[in-house]
Amino acid sequence: MRDFWQWMFSPSRRGPMLIAPALIMLFVMNIFPLMWSFGLSFFHYKASSIRPPTFAGLYYYEKVLTDPVVWERMQTTALIVAMSVLLQLVIGFALAMMFEKKFPLRREILMLVLTPMMLSFVAVGVFFKLFYEPTFGLLSQAYSYFSGEPLTLLATQWGAIWGIVIADAWMWSPFVMLLVLAGLVSVPDYLYEAAEVDRASKWKRFITVTFPYVRGLLLLALLFRTIETFKIFDVVYLITNGGPGTSTETIAVYVYRVAFQFFKTSQSSALSYILLFIVIVLTNLYLYFVKKRGEEG
């Protein structure tokens, strides 16, 4: 027995033994659940039933891909993603341009701007739910002060969509700002000085000097925020719960309902892996464009 422990903890095996607990935890908490859920997508199985799983093949993948409800939720998600990410890029870029310059209380204001990104999704969702409340919400109170009537923003489809987009952009525009700001501060001063010598206009300096340094970071922000917004769940569930009706029900909210309200475990697993495939495609498209831009450069 002593020889066994000496063999296990010999210097040549000390490194693998030290990382073994982390690898075991990774397998138990991440890899095994992924493999288990992927396997369930090929079987007839419901978490609320005691019946043993029976093989179904690609039945649930075919069912998901031909389900008009899924495509409707995809369209809703794509609309929210496009509006939210575009707004985040515009606001984040504008904030980065503002904080690039030094001014009084710059550090203190910057910390306040970064605060939304540090909050939990639940806190942001509850905050905006109360903010949009038609009876005592601040937005409704301000609107009724001028119009005399309360504002029920979440009662209409477009109002609810804009409510979600504003909440998501408020939380994550600082993230875009940080990425762009990192690119702006890395621009060498001598490039601006050369542009001034050539009497280039502000717009010309922006196009030829500033934007090339932040273009790659903007693409990175676009990728990160597109993927994260595509999976948006907490903010939608807390603010609108998919309403009015199902007009703001994103694909992530729909997966939750299928899995934990309708207990269609196999169908929700198949849909989840289709979403994972979409995320992988988006990531590879980004890497392709980055590689192509590098080859052109």
Q: Structural class per helix/strand content?
A: mainly alpha
Classify the fold: give the CATH topology of the largest domain. Answer: MetI-like fold
* Strand line-up across the major sheet: 1-2
CATH superfamily of the largest domain: MetI-like
Biggest sheet layout = 2 strands, antiparallel
- Low-pLDDT parts are none
Number of helices: 13
Mean pLDDT: 86
Strand content: under 5%
Rg to the nearest angstrom? 25 Å
Structural domains: how many: 2
Which series of helices and strands comes N to C?
HHEEHHHHHHHHHHH
Describe the overall structure.
The protein has a two-stranded antiparallel ribbon. The chain has 297 residues and is mainly alpha-helical. The model has no long low-confidence stretch (mean pLDDT 86). The chain has helices spanning 2-8, 14-40, 59-65, 68-100, 106-118, 121-131, 138-147, 157-184, 189-197, 202-230, 234-239, 251-260, 265-296, and strands at 43-44, 54-55. It has 2 domains: 2-40, no CATH class; 59-296, Orthogonal Bundle (MetI-like fold).
